[in-house]
Write a structure and sequence with these properties.
This protein is an alpha+beta fold and 255 residues long. The chain has a domain of 176 residues: CNF1/YfiH-like putative cysteine hydrolases (4-Layer Sandwich), CATH 3.60.140.10. The strands form 3 sheets. A 6-stranded mixed beta sheet has the order 4-5-8-7-9-13. The protein is globular.
């Protein structure tokens, strides 16, 4: 149910998990650990799934916190769960509060977990192409620094993300990147269809992390599209003409 990376597991006082689609209660196309309230899955099944994740993270159910993700560069510092039903529209959560697990949902986009064990600061960021392009990584690191983190002490791990062989985009998409920086050409390769290219989202995210100056930046190197038994994938569900898709969750906390 949970994948951990040694670079985070070995840090004192930090607990994390990139959770797969397995080990939950949902059925049909959501089988089984769907943690996305934004899906059409039964709300109670999603709640039960999140409760299982919270238990695995050794936090209370209410202390597993996600945001309303909108593919933005916005990052938010929190020290408690959100009150009521209003959930901020941001794509990264940052905290130094012990026992509060910040988490994000994905189904092809890049789930990023950050930790500075010396400062006791952690973060979870949703890095799709737009968020990574527009600055969600930089915003997340900036918020971590506000809480006392130091970039060289930060470990950042990229979880399961759609890979280059399965991420086809059109030439207009590529032009958006190369117009900003010609060197971004390296993240694209010949496509399988005329007028299309393959985009390496994990490599782009890692390059942004490395340019930011974090001490450690590593990819888990698992493709959401290819590993159907392990992960939900928006693109795969679309290609298979499924009515909807689930979301996996990635979380981190200071213990």
């Amino acid at each position: 149910m949970r994948i951990e990376h040694p670079a985070l597991s070995e840090l004192t006082g930090i607990q994390h998990g990139f959770f797969t689609r397995n080990g939950g209660t949902s059925s049909e196309s959501y089988q089984s650990l769907n943690c996305g309230y934004g899906s059409d899955d039964d709300h109670e099944q999603v709640r039960k799934n999140r409760a299982r994740v919270a238990e695995a993270m050794t936090v209370t159910e209410g202390n597993l916190v996600t945001a309303h993700q909108v593919h933005s560069p916005e990052a938010l510092i929190i020290d408690a769960p959100f009150a009521g039903t209003t959930v901020p529209k941001v794509d990264a959560l940052v905290t130094a509060k012990r026992g509060l697990a910040v988490a994000i949902l994905t189904a092809d986009c890049g789930p990023l977990l950050f930790a500075d064990p010396n400062a006791g600061v952690v973060a979870a960021a949703h890095a799709g192409w737009r968020g990574a392009f527009d600055g969600v990584i930089e915003s997340t690191l900036g918020r971590m620094e506000e809480l006392g983190a130091t970039k060289r002490d930060i470990t950042a791990i990229l979880g399961p993300t759609i890979s280059r062989p399965n991420y086809e985009v059109d030439l207009g998409f590529k032009d958006r990147f190369t117009a900003r920086e010609a060197a971004y050409e390296r993240f694209f390769s010949d496509g399988k269809r005329e007028g299309h290219v393959q985009f390496d989202l994990p490599a782009f995210i890692l390059s942004k992390l490395q340019a930011s100056g974090v001490g450690t930046a590593i990819s888990l190197d698992r493709c959401t599209y290819a590993l159907e038994d392990q992960f939900f994938s928006y693109r795969r569900s679309t290609h298979q003409r499924e009515p909807d898709y689930g979301r996996q969750i990635s979380a981190i906390t200071v213990i």
